[in-house]
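Hi, here's the filled form for the chain we discussed.

Project: internal
Contact: R.S.
Residues: 454
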Amino acid sequence: MQNPSPRRPISVLAVLPSQEPLIDSAMATLERRPPRIPLEEARTPPGLVLDPNFAAVPIGTGVPGEMSLEAVAPTQSRDFVVRAFVEVSDPSEVPVEQNGRPLFADPLIATFPTCPNSLAVGAVADVEARLRTAALAGRGLDGQGVAIAVLDTGINLAHLRSKLGTVPLFDAGNSWTPPRGTTAPGTYPVDHGTMCAFDALIAAPKATLLDFPILSTRVPGGAMTGSTLAVAVQAFAQLIAFWGVAFAPGGAPRYKALVVNNSWGVYHPSWDFPPGHPGRYIDNPRHPFQGLVSVLAGAGADILFAAGNCGADCPANQCQGRVTGTIMGANASPDVLTLAGCDVTDTRVGYSSQGPSIAGLYQQKPDLTAYTHFLGSDAFGPGVPDNGTSAACPVAAGCVAALRTKLTPHAVPPPNLFAQLTATARQVVPSPGWNGDYGYGIIDPDAAAAGFGV
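And the returned structure, exactly as it came back:
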C-alpha cells in the first residue's frame, strides 16, 4: 500500500470580514508602521495560519467592478485580503473556502526577460529614433512631474547614473519596501528592475522613479515559498494609498500622473490552482488582485503589463511548450495596456506572447507593441541586450509618462489615453485593426501627441 503524500503548507490569499486587527494592519500600511496582525486577536477560520507580516489589504466587497477608492478605505471596507497557509498533500486539494470564507490563489510570479545570449538588434539611439524622442522633447513632453513606479526586482541608482551620465529623479520617500525588506530604495543589486527603470527613461528622461521591489526577495514563509502574487497585492494597496488620496476630490497630488510598470507575470497554469477552482488567478476576473488593478486604474493611474515570453517561434523554457492563451491574469485585464515586443526593425521578436489571451479574460491582448532586444542598460552585463517583453513594457511606460507631461488623468483618463495610443499606432501588417502578434501596432507617442494637439 502506497504511503500518502506528506502534507505541506500552501500559500493562499484568504478573504476575511472587517475586524479591528485587520483595520489596524491596513492603517499601519498607510502610516508606514509595521503591519503585524495580532494573531491572538484576529478571528481566523480553523485550518488557516495567517502570515503576521503580511499587511491586511482592504478590498471593499471584493467584487471587481464594485470596488472603489471609497470602498477600499480601511475603515469602510467590508472585506480584507490576508496571506495565509493551508496544509494539503497536493495543491489540487486546496479547498474552495474555509468556514465560508473564500480562498484565492497566491501563485508564483516571475519577470519576463529571455534569450539574453542572442545578439542585440540596435541600441538606445535606434529606439530613440523610432520613438522620435527628439520630437517629443520639442513638444515639452519629457515626463517632468510624472511618477513611474517600477514593480520589479529593485532599482540601482548608481548604475543608472553611470549609464545615463546624469542623476535620475528618484523619490525614496514614496517608494516601498516589502515585508522584512532591509535594502534602502534605489540600492538594490543591478538586475532586471534596473533595466526596466533605464528603459522607462528613454522617452521620459525627466520622470521621477519610484522603487517597488516586489521581486527582490523571497516573500515571508521561508523555504516553502518564492516570490508570489501576494507581494504585488501589497504593492498595489500601497500605490492606491499613495495615488488614490491625491486623485480624490480635494486631494493634493504630488505628481501630475502615475505610471505603473509591470514586467512580470505567470508563465504556466501549473503555477496556479487547478482548472475549475473558483479561486484561480490566471483566468479569473473575480480574483482580488484584478479588483485592486481596477481600483488603481479607476483612480487615474496608467498601468502597463508585459505580454509575456511564450511566443510560438521561441518560447521561454518556463512556458513548458505552451504557446496559446499565454497572456494571463492581470496581464489580460481590460484596465491595463499590455505590451508585445519587436526589435528596432519593427520585426516581432519570436518569444513575444501572442493573443488572444487565456479564455475567461479580455481576449484582444496584446494592445500594442514596443521595442526590445537592444543594447541599453547593460543590467545583465556589457553587451547583453535589454530583452523580453520585460523591456518592451517600460519603453512604452516611458512613452505614456512623456504624454502625461501635459495630459493629466483628470483631463484624459487612462482609457482615453490608451485608445489614442492604439488609434495612432504604426501598422505593420497589411490589414488594419487588432491582431494577435502586434495588437493594434507599434507604439508611436509623437503621433499620439499630435492627435491630442500637445
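Let me know if anything looks off before we file it.
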